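Example S7 (structure tokens).
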């Protein structure tokens, strides 16, 4: 859906074997956006039922599904959409993002309008030292690619890809500079004096990034966190399905209260519901 009076926005999500996460992302993204948009999902051969789930959502008009016949990396999807999609704004979102507060997309569009920037992102990733194939490497700073908006006209002249780039250089302390997903694109945009902006820190309360569920191995502290996150995703997805689809009004209300991002917002929602219900119940007539 396109807003004829404002910026036209396409939200793009790449998915590969992240069935539950992708469904939670799509459901929460669409319900809580607060701004008209088109949603495109790219999949390059999931084998965990993701494609069937996304085809069902597409049949209900929730999204546009693209299935690549050959493997396509995350960065390649971003390059593909940048070349193919012609709306004013492209917003790249990772499939392991859950949106927990209403109006998140309206806030992104508001920042684009307020700042006039060509690139707006949710978080900045600082430069750091990493290990690459047994040697030290320097990881270039970049905006986090899991929630990144670009205005097409502002970055039209940027030729760099979103793909990772490795460069042997004396400018890096280790001699090897690694520009991860989006870093080379971002660096060229800055060289071309594209204005950029990081969303206010408070914006991070609108979403939760699970991170690494598709690639963190089992075992160890990171593996245990991954297991916990998978249980959280499964539980919140069940609640969101009930909240959106249950024929029982009380069950939908109970699910939404449990999905509320804080105790305060749960109480506020409960009081609003009680108020609406109260207004529909007539008072008992006085006994004669």
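Recovered sequence:
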């Amino acid at each position: 859906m396109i807003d004829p009076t404002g910026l036209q926005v396409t939200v793009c999500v790449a998915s590969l074997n992240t069935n539950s996460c992708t469904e939670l992302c799509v459901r929460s993204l669409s319900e809580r956006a607060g701004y008209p948009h088109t949603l495109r999902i790219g999949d390059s051969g999931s084998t965990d039922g993701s494609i069937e789930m996304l085809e069902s959502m597409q049949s209900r008009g929730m999204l546009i599904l693209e299935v690549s016949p050959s493997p396509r990396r995350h960065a390649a999807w971003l390059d593909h959409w940048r070349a193919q999609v012609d709306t004013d704004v492209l917003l790249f979102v990772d499939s392991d993002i859950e949106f927990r507060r209403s109006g998140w997309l309206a806030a992104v569009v508001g920042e684009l309008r307020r700042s006039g920037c060509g690139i707006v992102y949710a978080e900045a990733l600082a430069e750091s030292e990493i290990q690459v194939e047994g040697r030290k490497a320097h990881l270039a700073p970049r905006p986090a690619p899991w929630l990144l908006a670009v205005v097409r006209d502002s970055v039209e002249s940027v030729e760099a890809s979103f793909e990772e780039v490795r460069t042997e250089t004396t400018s890096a302390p280790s001699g090897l500079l690694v520009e991860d997903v989006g870093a080379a694109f971002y660096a060229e945009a800055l060289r071309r004096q594209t204005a950029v902006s990081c969303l206010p820190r408070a914006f991070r309360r609108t979403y939760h990034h699970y991170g690494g569920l598709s690639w963190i191995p089992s075992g160890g502290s990171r593996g245990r966190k991954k297991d916990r996150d998978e249980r959280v995703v499964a539980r919140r997805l069940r609640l969101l399905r009930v909240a959106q689809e249950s024929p029982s009004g009380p069950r939908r209300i109970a699910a939404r209260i449990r999905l509320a991002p804080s105790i305060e917002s749960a109480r506020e929602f409960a009081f609003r519901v009680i108020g609406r219900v109260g207004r529909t119940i007539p008072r008992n007539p006085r006994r004669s």
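Notes on this example. The radius of gyration is 22 Å.
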